[in-house]
Design a protein that fits this description.
Blueprint lengths: L2 E6 L3 H13 L3 E7 L2 H10 L4 E4 L8 H7 L5 E6 L5 H4 L6 E4 L4 H19 L7 E6 L2 E6 L3 E7 L2 E6 L3 E2 L5 H7 L5 E5 L2 E4 L3 E4 L3 E4 L4 E3 L5 H9 L9
Parallel strand pairs: 1-2, 1-3, 3-4, 4-5
Antiparallel strand pairs: 6-7, 8-9, 8-12, 9-10, 11-12, 13-14, 14-15
Length: about 240
């Protein structure tokens, strides 16, 4: 991963110094250096910039003014000789605020923060798994993680969560077919249980984290041992 970086400082010596810091860092790609906020703005219209390393006190438009003007702009590290700007800068959520002269260790730590922010931003957000049931004329969304267990009731399926229960017209076998992954365990012809809700497994029953007891059907006992117990046993007592 290369982080496209733009350096902005109206002082030529500082542009050169900060540029060298960027050049020697293996994660950073120095796209350009700019002597003003307006010059930097023009460069951002042409190049994809991931990071601004920006002075604050500059003529015409300050570094803080530039960042305020950007919508969904790059990440920012402010670099300045004036510590009293720190509070003003944090209104735009910079990655860091560095004081001149630059300390190499602090600079490296700042780039680690940039790396972390970019990594988090690039990770896709996967919604928690869920299903819908029909209730009257509405469709109700229920997250897998909210369900404790499900119980077959003639032509209905009673779905128990920690807060309430639902009873759609649905067979337990049909629900088992629709559920994705290996989150729920069929433990009886009438019961599906969320695996994380199981606290204790006895010979004939499951005890849930809520204290409720669910019977184990004879034909499902081997499956419970295979899927839920054997692969997760860390110790045995005789």
């Amino acid at each position: 991963m290369k982080i496209n970086t733009l350096v902005i400082d109206d002082n030529a010596n500082w542009r050169k110094t900060i540029g060298k810091f960027v050049d020697i860092h293996p994660l950073l790609e120095l796209v350009d250096t700019c002597d003003s906020a307006m010059d930097a703005y023009a460069k951002m219209m042409v190049h994809d910039i991931d990071l601004l390393i920006c002075d604050i006190e500059m003529p015409e438009l300050t570094g803080l003014g530039l960042v305020r003007s950007l919508q969904n702009g790059p990440l920012v590290i402010f670099v300045t000789s004036h510590a009293n700007y720190a509070l003003d800068c944090y209104e735009v959520s910079p990655v860091d605020f560095l004081l001149k002269p630059l300390d190499p260790e602090r600079f490296l730590a700042s780039i680690e923060k940039v790396k972390k922010r970019l990594t988090v931003a690039s990770e896709p957000i996967t919604p928690a798994p869920y299903f819908f049931i029909r209730e009257s004329n509405n469709y109700v969304q229920i997250r897998y993680q909210d369900v404790l267990y499900m119980k077959a009731q003639e032509h209905f399926l009673q779905i128990f969560t920690r807060d309430k229960s639902y009873m759609p017209m649905l067979s337990i076998s049909k629900m088992e077919e629709q559920l994705k992954g290996d989150v729920f365990l069929r433990v009886h012809r009438s019961f599906l249980v969320h695996r994380s809700a199981i606290a204790v497994i006895t010979k004939n029953d499951l005890v849930l984290t809520t204290g409720e007891t669910i019977p184990i059907g004879d034909q499902y006992r081997a499956q419970i041992n295979r899927k839920h117990i054997n692969m997760n046993v860390v110790s045995r007592r005789s």
